[in-house]
Amino acid sequence: MSAATSLLVRFVHIVGMALVFGGAVFAWATLRAPGSGGKRADSSAGAVGDPSPLATTYEWVFWAAMGAMVVTGVGNLGALGPPGPSGRWGTILTVKLLTVTAFVLGSFVRTLVALRVRRDRPAGAGRSLLAKSYGATAAALLVLVALAEVLAHG
What we know:
By secondary structure, this protein is mainly α. It has one domain (3-33, 52-153). The protein has 4 helices and no strands. The protein has helices spanning 3-32, 51-80, 87-120, 124-153. It starts with a helix and ends with a helix. Mean pLDDT is 83; it is low at 38-48.
């Protein structure tokens, strides 16, 4: 892989992580904001702060970015040579890959919750559940970033 291609692959990987992490933190903070639910002051029937558009948009961005990060992550591994489970680096890589797998499976659950909230439109319980799920997503991503940092810099 040429230096320019390698740089582009790493750039796409980092931008994908920034979108996924930043979006999770934004969704978590927005859904936790006090007073962002309820009725409008002019007493119209529309609810202020319906979480389903935010959740739906984040899920689309999340899965697109995750697809790009999986492809570029494999490209990064290919550029580094064949990884093996032996040694410290290989052990950390194995832990990271297992953590990514668990994270993706948990993200499927979060997406199903977001789809249920969009379909059923529950009042406060759905909003609280979404806020917790996006907070857990951000926390899991921090662990993954820490593992990536250890892999990249020893």
